[in-house]
Design goal:
- This protein is mainly beta.
- It has 2 domains: 27-135, no CATH class; 151-213 and 226-299, Roll (Surface presentation of antigens (SPOA)), CATH 2.30.330.10.
- 14% of the residues lie in helices and 40% in strands.
- Strands 8-16-15-14-12-7-9-10-11-13 form a 10-stranded antiparallel β-sheet. A 6-stranded antiparallel β-sheet has the order 1-5-6-3-2-4.
Length: 300
């Protein structure tokens, strides 16, 4: 990349800007900037999204959380006592954004003014005062459900109805009329490398049923020093769908099949389409009889 003059993006600043946009979209007053000089409390919040760290004006929190306390005190509450009160309250901060929900707050302490951050931080207003987030929670591994008018609704996807797979040795030449056994049956609906569930055949088409994806990988092929194994996959059908339609595939969903679907089984070798065949029953096993083999020019 030495020949390119690329603009550099600070990951922390970018994450903070993204967080502010999310909070504003949720209807919360938010922004970015350096904390104003004051007496602050520093705390750690633990939630489902992970831990995050924040700052809040100690006396501002006290006046908003316990507004009648000041009138009952003969002298002004010390910073040390505010810290103790903050620790004693079960939920000292009401947070109205999903990524900052928390189960508990700990490690609360006073922050000397000399140690206040001078760089811009994301902040949001709460019922107990402005909260400055010094460390955001980790980004979630899975995204939130799509909105009804998400631009991703039209994202093209391919739903593969996989019948199973076998192994073929490269020294074997495929010919019309050959019958290939489907040794490992799966009958799964997949999008990319993600398995959505199993399917069974019905008179109306196929019956989809969502399942928990197997965590075990497929068994490794037997080692044969005389040949390199090739993974064969047998695809019943491939449907071009969008993400909005995909979210509607639930237990009991029926997917219609073309009348001649059984005669158009695609055979893939290491992911490449190499033949087309007809799905047949071979004894107690399903198999595919090859009707057409796709040959390269060098094979003729």
């Amino acid at each position: 990349m030495k020949g390119l003059n690329l603009r550099r993006i600070n990951p922390q600043a970018h994450a903070g800007a993204q967080a502010v946009r999310r909070w504003l979209s949720a209807g919360v007053q938010a922004g970015s900037g350096a904390p104003e000089p004051a007496q602050y409390l520093r705390f750690r919040a633990s939630g489902e999204c992970g831990d995050w760290w924040g700052l809040i004006d100690a006396r501002g929190w006290l006046h908003r959380s316990l507004p009648t306390l000041q009138s009952l005190l003969a002298v002004e509450c010390s910073l040390i006592h505010i810290v103790e009160l903050f620790r004693a309250v079960p939920r000292p901060l009401p947070m109205d954004v999903d990524d900052l929900h928390y189960r508990n707050i700990g490690d609360a302490e006073a922050v000397p003014r000399a140690q206040l951050p001078t760089q811009a931080l994301p902040w949001l207003d709460s019922a107990c005062g402005r909260v400055w987030v010094t460390q955001l929670p980790p980004a979630p591994a899975a995204g939130r459900p799509l909105a009804s008018e998400s631009w991703l609704d039209d994202l093209p996807l391919h739903l593969d109805l996989m019948l199973g797979w076998s192994h073929l040795r490269q020294v074997v030449r495929l010919n019309e009329g050959d019958v290939l056994r489907i040794i490992h049956r799966s009958q799964r609906g997949c999008v990319g490398n993600h398995c959505l569930g199993d399917f069974t055949f019905t008179e109306l088409g196929i019956h989809m049923q969502s399942t928990v994806e197997d965590t075990h990988s497929a068994p490794a092929p037997e080692v044969d020093l005389g040949a390199v194994p090739v993974r064969l996959e047998f695809v019943l059908a491939t449907h071009a769908i969008d993400l909005a339609t995909l979210t509607q595939i639930i237990d009991g969903q029926l997917i219609a099949l073309a009348d001649e679907a059984a005669r158009h089984i695609e055979v893939r070798a290491n992911g490449k389409a190499v033949a087309r065949g007809e799905l047949v029953q071979l004894g107690e096993q399903l198999a595919v009889e090859l009707l057409e083999v796709y040959r390269a020019a060098r094979d003729e």
